[in-house]
């Protein structure tokens, strides 16, 4: 951890890891979905202001991270690795240093380390003597993380370490995503390699890059690189659940060259912002009915623009195609004589949408503030742009007819931006049925073309077909029953996992995915349960030992 005092000596190490102290013209329609009150919403009201859990970390709190997370000898190595990994920036497509660090840890443990051309890391450890003929196991996780932060949080994801806080049974970061997705999995793999008293067959740990923004690492794995029969993916977020299938996906990028003009004389620039929404993972939380800040902003602008002569400068919202947008803003010019009535109407819009979402989005807010701008979009471009944002689908398209409660097909209106004279919208469409996935993507393309935009489908990836009768599934069920006295919940998920791509390259490989309890992944409220990490660690160790 980073010391609050740069001159403080390093007094503690573990496995060679330093443990220093970190110190337009359409009226839109929205149908609200499931009004389930989330656990986090309750937690926020108890422990701190909107958008955070508790207050900023003190020096005492930072020290407690080391003192408390490393007290359990069973998970000491795992948390020591995670604390060190959290010092290294590892946003998607900027995780090279973190991947290098993983490789260094493998070499330090005396294991064989291989790298492929895109940067994936494969660490091999020979079988314990006498277990050479046991089935090989590969433990797999991705090293990159989604980089999201609350507005006003002073954090540079390209250079700053994460500021971790341990409160009760939870670990979180201050104002940013935590990176437990999937850093906990990476560090569990390293801790498994470091364990000297574990009897095992041939063991591999595969750490992939750029999972969150394109599954680049898994897509580029060479066929046959892995030698194991079984793959344990550690990129799941609910303890006690064994995932045996996932959705495939396809990205759609929608663009249009913009005509820019000079704003009308006498008008002033303003910034209209929609914020305070929960956001979340566009796969695992798309069914919750959470608001999309981009869609909300478009609804408001579509009503206000003709009434107040708004001349759009830009629209910007969302950060990741696979995260439900929490914030979005439009900069525009308007006659200042309209400001007072604009604010009154904006307050009514805020009350309307807060009522529509109910307990789903208690923090929803709309604001207006002075801004700056030089050129505005033409009227035609403005109308087409807002119309597109209203017309594009977002949310659940279909539920699975075979698995109760499982989303089968959905799409996420993830990112919108206007820069360098071009509008760009990015969407991620998911489905466990390939035909449904591409049918929805084609509909998105048709809507885009009708609005005068150019759609491009990119980076399709396959789903992972469930096999509940596989020997690996049966093995995991048996081990879980022995450890905890209860059965695992067997399921498929509506999120992308790397298993489908890896399985394509390794026919016959049996795969499962599991992990500890995490909440609000892909948001600054992301947090993970310490006790759940301990339970999943026990499951991982026993599953490898008894395979």
Whole-number tally of structural domains: 2
Can you tell me the CATH architecture of the largest domain?
3-Layer(aba) Sandwich
Gross geometry: elongated
- Count of individual helical segments: 13
- Uncertain spans, ≥5 residues at pLDDT below 50? 1-63
Query: Which topology of the largest domain does CATH recognise?
Result: Aminopeptidase
Report the CATH C-level class of the largest domain.
Alpha Beta
Give an account of the 3D structure.
- The protein is of the alpha+beta class.
- The chain folds into two domains: 304 residues, Zn peptidases (Aminopeptidase), CATH 3.40.630; 213 residues, Alpha-Beta Plaits.
- 30% of the residues lie in helices and 25% in strands.
- It is built from 13 helices and 27 strands.
- The strands form eight sheets. It has a six-stranded mixed beta sheet with strand order 3-4-8-5-9-25.
- Strand 26 and strand 27 form a beta hairpin.
- Helix 3 crosses helix 5, helix 7 runs antiparallel to helix 9 and helix 11 crosses helix 13.
């Amino acid at each position: 951890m980073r010391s609050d005092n740069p001159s403080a000596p390093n007094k503690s190490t573990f496995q060679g890891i330093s443990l220093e102290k970190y110190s337009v013209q359409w009226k839109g329609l929205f149908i609200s979905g499931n009004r389930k009150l989330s656990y986090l919403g309750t937690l926020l009201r108890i422990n701190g202001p909107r958008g955070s859990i508790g207050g900023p970390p003190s020096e005492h709190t930072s020290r407690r991270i080391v003192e408390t997370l490393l007290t359990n000898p069973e998970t000491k190595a795992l948390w020591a690795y995670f604390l060190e990994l959290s010092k290294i920036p590892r946003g998607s497509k900027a995780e090279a240093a973190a991947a290098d660090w993983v490789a260094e840890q493998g070499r330090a443990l005396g294991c064989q380390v291989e790298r492929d051309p895109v940067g994936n890391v494969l660490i091999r450890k020979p079988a314990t003597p006498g277990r050479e003929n046991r089935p090989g196991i590969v433990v797999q996780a991705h090293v990159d993380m989604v980089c999201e932060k609350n507005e006003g949080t002073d954090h540079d994801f390209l250079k700053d370490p994460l500021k971790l806080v341990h409160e009760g049974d939870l670990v979180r970061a201050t104002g940013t995503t935590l990176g437990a997705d999937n850093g906990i999995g990476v560090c569990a793999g390293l801790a498994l390699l470091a364990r000297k008293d574990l009897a095992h067959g041939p063991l591999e740990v595969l750490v992939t890059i750029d999972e969150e923004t394109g599954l680049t690492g898994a897509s580029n794995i060479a066929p046959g690189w892995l030698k194991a029969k079984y793959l344990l993916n550690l990129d799941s977020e609910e303890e006690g659940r064994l995932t045996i299938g996932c959705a495939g996906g396809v990205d759609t990028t929608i663009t249009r060259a913009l005509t820019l003009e000079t704003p009308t004389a006498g008008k002033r620039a303003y910034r209209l912002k929609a914020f305070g929404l929960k956001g979340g993972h566009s796969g695992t939380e798309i069914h919750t009915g959470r608001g999309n800040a981009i869609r909300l902003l478009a609804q408001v602008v579509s009503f206000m623009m003709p009434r107040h002569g708004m001349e759009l400068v830009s629209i910007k919202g969302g950060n990741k195609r696979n995260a439900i947008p929490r914030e979005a803003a439009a900069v525009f010019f308007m006659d200042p004589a309209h400001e007072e009535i604009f604010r009154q109407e904006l307050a009514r819009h805020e009350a309307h949408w807060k009522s529509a979402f109910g307990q789903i989005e208690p923090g929803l807010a709309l604001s207006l503030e002075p801004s700056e701008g030089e050129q505005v979009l033409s009227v035609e471009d403005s109308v087409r742009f807002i119309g597109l944002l209203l017309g594009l689908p977002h949310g659940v398209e279909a539920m699975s007819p075979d698995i109760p409660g499982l989303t089968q097909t959905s799409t996420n209106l993830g990112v919108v931006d206007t820069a360098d004279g071009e509008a760009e919208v990015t969407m991620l469409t998911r489905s466990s049925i390939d035909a449904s996935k591409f049918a929805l993507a084609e509909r998105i393309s048709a809507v885009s073309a009708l609005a005068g935009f150019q759609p491009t489908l990119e980076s399709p990836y396959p789903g992972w077909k469930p096999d509940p009768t596989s020997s690996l599934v049966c093995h995991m069920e048996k081990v879980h029953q022995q450890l905890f006295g209860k059965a695992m919940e067997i399921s498929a998920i509506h999120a992308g996992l790397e298993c489908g791509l890896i399985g394509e390259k390794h026919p016959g490989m049996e795969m499962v995915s599991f992990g500890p309890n995490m909440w609000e992944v892909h948001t600054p409220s992301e947090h993970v349960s310490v006790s759940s990490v301990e339970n999943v660690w026990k499951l991982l160790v026993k599953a490898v030992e008894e395979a």
